[in-house]
Amino acid sequence: MADPDQTAARRYQATAGATARDHATADAAARDHATADDTSRNHATADAAARNHATADDTSRNHATADAAARDHATADAARDHATADDTSRDQATAGRPGQTGGTPASAERWLDPAEMAAWLAFLEVSHLLDRKIEQQLKRDAGLSHAQYEILSRLAAAPGGQLRMSELAEVIIVSRSGLTYQITQLEKAGLVRREKCQSDERGVLAILTSAGRTALARAAPGHLRVVRAYLIDALTPAERDTLTDALTVARTRLRPSPTSGHS
User: Fold this and answer.
1) CA-closest candidate to residue 173, choices 160, 182, 164
2) pTM
3) pLDDT at 239 over 60
């Protein structure tokens, strides 16, 4: 016959073991729940991140679209401005002619007829295109603007390579403030220097430096080629004479006492 105490002890141990297993099972279940919760949170975080990325992408696309639209508007505005400027120029030349609507009465001005308009537009186009060619060549060959080349050439032709600023302003087709700016740029580049005039304390001399002569010598051959190719050699001797006579008449109206030798 079994000992009652031993039997009770075995039952107690079995019960304790079952309880321990139950606790272990409960702990495992709790950990699973915690893991599941963490996974859910991670999924939620990933979903939020994906939404944020999508929102950021949409925002970037919207910004890009807005920027493109702004550029398109700016381009369109610029095109309209150019078109408006061209139309204004033509309107100013043609407004008020007999048969035209708008503008001042035809009797108020002598408006350009087709032949006169053709002459004006041809001169305007050639002068702009030729000046652009000259600017490009001078920048490429010597880093000079057309006005700066003109200043250097005038100084090189003057006695001692120097002129008073007031004298230079008379022969250079720029304003006095524009001349001061160009001389300042040339002075910074070491091509020209300024000195007080000894005979007049209020006067200032612009003096060509040796570096200025070198820059002029570097730029002159290309300048000559452009002037020849696009104007002088494009005309016959008779056409050149006619052009000279016509432009001399116009220049006399603009500058009653022109200085000869303008390049």
Assistant:
1) 182
2) 0.57
3) yes
